[in-house]
Amino acid sequence: MPLASPPNQPLFASSILLLAGGRGLRVGGQDKGLLTWRGQPLIAQLHALCRPLSDDLIISCNRNQARYQDYADQLVGDREEGFPGPFAGILAGLAVARHPALLVLPCDAPLLDLSLLEALHERAAANPDRPVMVRRGAQWEPLFCLLPTHLLAALEQAWKAGERSPRRALLAFGTLALDCAEDDPRLANLNTPDLLAASER
């Protein structure tokens, strides 16, 4: 069955980046985005949520590009070899985003829902020049964020200076918090075989 086409009138005026470029150490080196959950690859779950929201759906992946192609308008890979981390994927997404803002989400969070993504956009509406990041209790969650794409040059400078933490890099720009409960199930990262199996039950 062919996947849904990009929407003619997307809900969000932002690009969306799904991060699927990691080494997958917690799942034995497998490509996490392609692990099966409830009968589908994890990336398919995020695609189903995000496809109606944007006409610019980007996937950061460093392998299995042919399998990811059907789920994205654009694919990007890290500019450096060796799986340098999610900050590299975010920079690659910012470099190709077609809209002034980029919504960043991890591929292993299939319990996300539309209300959380809408809340990120609403939080950013009054301050479009500042990043918005989910904060779960006291813990910032940099892989759930909405970024103005004009930050690309400054974030690339941080990378060149040796910064590899997207949390630290983004907090330097007056990041706004979208506060969620510590146990918010929508933010669950199903990044181990045990978590995947338990959530299916």
Write up this protein.
- The chain has one domain (15-200): Spore Coat Polysaccharide Biosynthesis Protein SpsA, Chain A, CATH 3.90.550.10.
- The radius of gyration is 16 Å and the shape is globular.
- It has helices at 42-50, 65-68, 86-96, 114-125, 152-160, 166-171, 193-200; strands at 15-19, 36-37, 40-41, 57-60, 74-76, 101-106, 132-136, 139-148, 176-180.
- The model has no long low-confidence stretch (mean pLDDT 89).
- The two termini are 27 Å apart.
- The protein is built from 7 helices and 9 strands, in the order βββαβαβαβαββααβα.
- The strands form 2 sheets. The protein has a 7-stranded mixed beta sheet, with helices on both faces. It has a two-stranded antiparallel sheet with strand order 2-3.
- Helices cover 29% and strands 21% of the residues.
CATH topology: Spore Coat Polysaccharide Biosynthesis Protein SpsA, Chain A
Instruction: Please identify which CATH superfamily we are dealing with.
Output: Spore Coat Polysaccharide Biosynthesis Protein SpsA, Chain A
Total DSSP helices: 7
Which word captures the global form? globular
Name the strands of the widest sheet in spatial order: 5-4-1-6-8-7-9
CATH first level: which class?
A: Alpha Beta
Largest sheet: 7 strands, mixed
Low-pLDDT stretches: none
CATH architecture: Alpha-Beta Complex
- The number of domains is 1
Q: What is the percentage of strand-forming residues?
A: 15-25%
Q: Helix and strand succession?
A: EEEHEHEHEHEEHHEH
> How helical, in percent, are the residues?
25-40%
Spatial gap, N to C terminus: 27 Å
User: How many beta strands in the DSSP annotation?
Assistant: 9
